[in-house]
Amino acid sequence: MDVDVDKSPSEGEVLIFTMGGAFLVNGSVRELVAKLNADEWADLVLAESGDHVVLRSSQVVALRPGTKHRRGTIGFAPRTGA
To answer: What is the DSSP string of 6-74?
Structure first.
């Protein structure tokens, strides 16, 4: 499974970088840090497929949290003069 590491994860997803590659998983950074601190072998759920993956916490090198997608708006301004 290929993960686009240039794309920011969505809200409720975290991109986890390990020594062996990157994984997009469900959750928040706070939840994942707690799980990685509590378990040597953390059981996580992949965001794209719902499959479980077990990662050794000592192999995690970085976490990138998801962000809310901003809604675009169109503004209308009155015309002055004719």
So the answer is: TSPPBTTEEEEEETTEEEEEES-HHHHHHHHHH-SEEEEEBTTT--EEEEEGGGEEEEEE-BPPPPP--
